[in-house]
Amino acid sequence: MNSHKVISIRNLTPSTYVIRMEKKDFTFKTGQYITLGFSGSIDRREYSIYSAEQDDYLEVLIKEVEDGLLSKKLKKCKPGDVLDVDGAFGHFSLKEDEIKNKKFMFISTGTGISPIHSFIHTHPEMDYTLLHGIRHKNEAYESESYDPNRYILCTSGENTGDFNGRVTEYLLKNPVSPDTICYLCGNCHMIYEAYDILEKQGIKLGPIHTEVYF
Amino acid sequence: MKTIAFKTLGCRLNQYETDALASTFQNNDYKLVDFDTEADIYVINSCTVTHQSDHKSRHFISQANRRNKDSVLVVTGCMANNAKEELENRDEINYVLENDNKSALFSLVEAHFKGELKHPSQLDKDLFAYGATEKGFHTRSMIKIQDGCDNFCTFCIIPSVRGRAKSRSFEAILDNVRSVVDNGAKEVVITGVNIGRYEFEHYKFDDLIEAILNLDGDFRLRISSLEPDGFGDKFLGLLSHPKMTPHLHLCLQSGSDEVLLRMRRMYNIKTFKNTVEKVRTIRPDFNFTTDIIIGFPDESETAFTDSCDMIKDMEFGHVHAFKYSIRKGTRAERMENQVPEKVKTERSEVLRGIAEESKLKYRSQFIGQTQRVLVETINGNTAKGYGEHYIPVQFEAEDLKENTFYNVSIKAIVEEKDGLLLGELI
Ligand SMILES: Cc1cc2nc3c(=O)[nH]c(=O)nc-3n(C[C@H](O)[C@H](O)[C@H](O)COP(=O)(O)OP(=O)(O)OC[C@H]3O[C@@H](n4cnc5c(N)ncnc54)[C@H](O)[C@@H]3O)c2cc1C
């Protein structure tokens, strides 16, 4: 476990923020997560790494959870505070031999876009489509950082995105071609349903292709 | 001669580590005695995977202290990592030895008797520095190939007590196998925390297994517990190797995809079934055994029924079923809809009944077949051991020898004795 100083906090919505920390000699594979906690505290939580492999800082994207312990506390941290970082962990990662010559579909809900942000910013040349499911448009975290032709915003609470409804409804209406490599990240129910839909559309999903947050 | 007694709880890896430690003491003129007799040194190699294992570990600590108040009492294993402070505050315990110091137990005890009081933190940390287990308690020789786990399943405390995954050197493992086989081991058991994730330099798990299978000698290879995500077709192909035993303990945990997702397991029911089907197409009587957790948070009646149905469908040869218990610091501790204890107990009874039926059904198919039994214990003319499918077999014969293979024709199954097979020497 290593101590990392907070460089800055970027508030994206009233409840969602990005913590930027010093990177030091930390290394990871894009898609992996860290566990994060205040220096010396036993309360730690998992957070996907939001920044790219080549960035000289480390970032996580966090949404404050109602009645949540750490997501609330972390929101209050200030530049100069010290956080304990452990990792990198996890097998949610791209295959080297697929990055350049395959077509990707990234399906995420809420902060589940975090490792996808890291994928895309680590490998901007990738041929991808990104599906981001949220309730309201203000949760389209830093959507301007993706190629607008590749980014599809699904809003379920209002008709302000590119598609009005859940990502699963989008997938049902817009089948994915079977030669696409799909990665799913977010809540368990979305992943469970999307998995089923994609399988029926002929997509093969291995263990590295899903990341469940809660 | 000083006497030493061990009590081992939990997994095979703990068992291996105890065997290896016991051998080191025996080779250095200590006498190994039963845990329920008086000893100069008691070692409790504890487990913390469930509440029950914590409870048992505490019970054995008290028992050891009652037997000999002046003994040196050492607690090691996963509880020593997880409840270090609590254990260090108990006066009757002399040393609390965390997993990464465990292999240095002998030097700790030796130092103690020489009057040099060492703190465990001064000991060498080496996860693989265990001696050979030739004088241990088992005919099967366990070989540790890795330690720790990076999977972070939401119910599991192992990553925080065993640490990150670390693999032992490829050559050291092969040397270890060669040496136990040269010393007469007839069955080699590959063990670790998450062995499917073995990775050393460019060698993966299947490369290691292939290399072990290709070693000379009259031995058979058994894989201990395996996660269903850690291997591919190359490994499945190796299961047909003549030295490989037709048995895998493949940890399912739940028969419901929704529950598996919340457990953050790395496979789904379909891939699990595919694996079992692929193997059984080649070898229909292949023995799959498994673990199932009952009452994981938010486990619905349907999800529970899915687990029961999986047992029937997969015809497991044995199911290690345990009720979910909250482990502090894990994600599942914070999950909503924890299942009430009463419901867990009811489900547990139902599932155990189904598992029992599945076991008997699976084992009954061996009546009329031959098993190659490695004899472990002999009592007069009665021998007991395990066949290649890892099913206990008993038979009668004269001039029996331990640690020897016998071909036995299976005649009956004893339901009251947990499905023990009875046979006759061919
Ligand atoms: C591999 C992995 C990566 C993750 N990456 C991220 C990430 O990049 N960004 C991020 O914001 N979170 C991420 N999470 C979730 C994160 O670890 C915490 O669970 C979350 O921040 C809540 O922690 P807390 O201490 O505030 O809430 P807790 O005190 O742990 O929980 C309070 C309650 O909220 C529920 N809950 C927990 N998480 C959520 C959630 N995400 N949404 C709604 N309810 C929830 C719990 O079931 C509990 O009932 C990830 C989780 C995993 C397993």
Major sheet of chain B: size, sense and barrel closure? 5 strands, parallel
Termini separation of chain A (Å)? 24 Å
Quickly count the domains of chain B. 4
The small-molecule ligands in this entry are: flavin-adenine dinucleotide
What's the level 1 CATH class of the largest domain in chain A?
Alpha Beta
CATH superfamily of the largest domain in chain A: Nucleotide-binding domain of ferredoxin-NADP reductase (FNR) module
Shape of chain A: globular
In DSSP terms, counting alpha (H) and pi (I) runs of 4 or more, how many helices of chain B? 13
- The CATH superfamily of the largest domain in chain B is known as Methylthiotransferase, N-terminal domain
Give a short account of the largest sheet of chain A. 6 strands, antiparallel
Secondary structure: number of strands of chain A: 12
Quickly give the structural class of chain A: alpha/beta
Strand order, largest beta sheet of chain A: 4-3-6-1-2-5
CATH architecture annotation name of the largest domain in chain A: 3-Layer(aba) Sandwich
Low-confidence stretches of chain A are: none
Classify the secondary structure makeup of chain B into a structural class. Answer: alpha/beta
**CATH class call of the largest domain in chain B:** Alpha Beta
For this entry, give a set of tags.
heterodimer; A: 214 residues; alpha/beta; Elongation Factor Tu (Ef-tu), domain 3; Rossmann fold; six-stranded antiparallel beta sheet; six-stranded parallel beta sheet; 12 strands; globular; B: 426 residues; Transcription Regulator spoIIAA; five-stranded parallel beta sheet; five-stranded mixed β-barrel; 24% strand; binds flavin-adenine dinucleotide
